[in-house]
Amino acid sequence: METPRPTSQSDFLVNKKRIRVLGLSLDDATKFFFGGNAVVSIIVLALITYFLFQEGIGFFGQNHRNLLTYRQAGLEYVDFIRTQESGHIALTRYLSDLRLRQYNYYVAEQKMSPAAANQALVKFDDFAAQYGDAVEPIRGMVSDLTEQATAIKTKFLIAEDKKTERQQLLVAGKINEAAAVKIESVDFAAELHILTGVLPVYKQTSAEFAKKLDASLAVAPRLTTPELMARLDRFNQLTHDYLATFPATTRSLETWDYTRPVPWYQAISAFLFGREWLTASFWQDWYGIVPLLMGSVMVSFVALVIAVPLGVGAAIYINQIASSREQRIIKPSIEFISAFPSVVLGFFGIAVLGQSLRWLSQQTWLAWVPGFPFSERLNILTAGCLLALIAVPTIFTLAEDALQNVPKAFKEASFALGATRLQTIIKIVVPASLSGIISAVLLGLGRVIGETMVVLLCAGNRIAIPDFTAGLAVVTQPVHTMTGIIAQEMGEVVRGSIHYRALFVVGIVLFFLSLGINFIAQKIVRKYRISIG
Amino acid sequence: MSPSTRHEFQSRPSAARRWESAALWLFRTATYVILICGALVFGNIVFKGSKTVFTTTAPFINVPFFTEAPESLYVFDYQGQKREMGDREFRAFKATHPEAKDIKAESYVYSAGGIFPCIVGTVLLVLGSMIIALTLGVSAAVYLSEYAKQGRAVTLIRLAILNLAGVPSIVFGLFGLGLFVIYLDWNVSLLAGWFTLAFMVLPVVITASEESLKAVPKGFREGSLALGATKWQTIRKNVLPYALPGILTSSILGIARVAGETAPIMFTAAYVVRDKLPWEGLTSVSDFFFQGVMALPYHIYVVSSKIPQNEYTERVQYGTAFVFLVIVALIATCSIVLRNKLRNRYKW
């Protein structure tokens, strides 16, 4: 816009004074005001990224120190032996399972009284007791060493605390007070000597342990059915495999060295590939995202398996088949479902759905379904069903839009060639809108994976990687999820602690996961959009 | 249809036709399964919740439930009778009945009284965040649809909006915690909750507003500009008034979303329990903005996860869920109905 020169101002018949502030006319100012508001979205996105990283990035340093302490205080050393012990526990569990099967066989098939069945199992019990007791020396050793290692760790942590205290005093300028803070430095080499000193004893104990196991296997009684015998053989095999790991354990103990540095990348890989999320434990905290990620993925997967056929099917029905009256009623109804607050759905899951599903699973005529019956009321399936209800409206609305965008000419041409309605839908309309449908499913996935309240309330909140050996029954196990863990633990952690920062890092993972899903969905729409030419 | 009534041009039954109708029925079933599931959830909550919310005697509505604060519920046997009392009532009872002093009572937190503070908190949260979101969102939409020329900046803005829409709500909660609660030191407060929620619905509001602005015909703007009005005058007098109904109705859906979210306010604005109402005990005006509140969704989370399920606790659980669901559903229904009406009204 040209500004009239002051001299020629009187030449105009209509003259308007423009108010200018800082060289901006009112119009420019409004424009900048609106523009500024539009930029807010960029700023918010940037701020989200910034603050997630600001709070989260310190985790990796802390985790590195955490892992370093684990090694230096000898916890790692003790855990080598502990692994050996827990291997034995798993085997004894197998054995007691075997006993239960044999007992059931006696009672159910041979109609023995419980007392008689127990009588018949005396020999087996002797064997199991001998097998189970063999580990005692090792167990005693582990518990002794655990105490010692914990003592070293505590000592070290106290020293670290004192150091930070002194540092803070120095920063505050209180030099005298800082000097008064006594720091007991931890001499790891000396302290760990007690730990590493047990190696010869361990070697001997371990050898005896192996011998005892071998000996007890020799006295294993025979079981009554071929199936149980096969299991016993399997048990023998497992024990031999287990015994074969002993030399490796000894070797790791021999070569263990507390001075071996922990590479920096391990702080990251321990988080990304760590299979344990264990916090506030007296021994060692682990921050591994895998169980949470697997939980989120499993729950979302179940939700999508249910929601995709329903959502896409309904979209096809509404867009291609339904009468206009049906359309007018059903479309708003499904939109209405999308307004259900997730916390209400979560409550519904706790109060009704969980119990109903469990009741259903305990019906005898449904016993053939994998995973049925289950005892956990809140599990992947319960959460997945409810999440499906959340995902369906999203998938339905977007898929319906995609179907709507298919040019009418496509359909007409298909009909003109003599195709039936079903043929037209399956061969013409759906393929033409496939990119839109896929992106609808992806956006539904994004919605489901970021959903918090339903999984927090209904997924069972057990931090464990689902046991995939159970086959399809895996969906009846409880899990914990990324969103759930943040919501549950963020209220209880100390600000700035490693746990607090770990939760922020989980948030970062979630943030980028959803951005990634969003990005792929957009990409698919743009790349495979059909040209209407 | 019997063969005798079949006329010549009618299509003959065939395997393909049977397949077709089977497939069409499959699609129909999918649609109705969704509707039935939705109706089941809605029906269950409404049915069981209405027992708490409504009464059989006048005024037919459980007034204390809407006007009182949550209390602990005490259940005890007294002279062979089962009595249930709220916290205050129980204390008064003990004071008047000295013999009942050492009576053993089972207590259930939050299971008596009402949900008034939660309703107030939710209303405050929704109002504040919607004011912020509407100001920011409508302005941004005006810029995008009226002023902006295609360019890198605008592409970037649109990309940001699109991505912001996909960010999980719990991440917004973390962001609010990091920025407002910790960095700006607002603590757990209304203000922190407002901004967190406002940023969360921003994409919804921007997209809805832009759509409504785009629906105003070009001729309106051109006519005004031709008469010598400035751009801002044109927008103020000839574009916004026609777009405003659309903007507001579509943004109501945003309100439903704000009211329904729990995760973003968990660490930014919501308290598990607070005895003071937001306008009580204020020493200065700013205190109002820097206080946490109780909120309905968070209260539902607390009562459904932290207390056991039984006949005593069920009332407050279902009652709260019912009230909340009905509020959100009403807002959503308003939005859907208004939008459909609007679509029919404005045809330029």
In short:
The complex is a heterodimer of chains A (about 525) and B (about 350). Chain A has 22 helices and four strands. In chain A, strand 1 (about 20) and strand 2 form a beta hairpin.
Alpha-carbon distance between the termini of chain B? 48 Å
Question: How would you describe the oligomerization state of the chains in this entry?
Answer: heterodimer
CATH C-level of the largest domain in chain A: Mainly Alpha
Largest sheet of chain A: 2 strands, antiparallel
Beta-strand segment tally of chain A: 4
Structural description of this entry:
The complex is a heterodimer of chains A (533) and B (348). Chain A is built from 22 helices and four strands. Chain A is mainly α and 533 residues long. Chain A folds into three domains: 18-56; 66-271, no CATH class; 291-527, MetI-like (MetI-like fold), CATH 1.10.3720. In chain A, strands 1-2 form a two-stranded antiparallel sheet. The longest helix of chain A is centred in the N-terminal third of the chain and has 36 residues, at 136-171. The relative contact order of chain A is 0.09. Chain B has three domains: 10-53; 68-113, no CATH class; 116-345, MetI-like fold (Orthogonal Bundle). With 348 residues, chain B is mostly helical. Chain B has a three-stranded antiparallel beta sheet with strand order 2-1-3. Chain B has helices at 15-53, 63-67, 87-96, 116-147, 152-166, 169-183, 190-215, 218-226, 231-260, 263-266, 285-289, 296-305, 311-345, and strands at residues 70-78, 81-86, 106-113. The mean pLDDT of chain B is 85. The interface between A and B is large, with 85 and 93 residues.
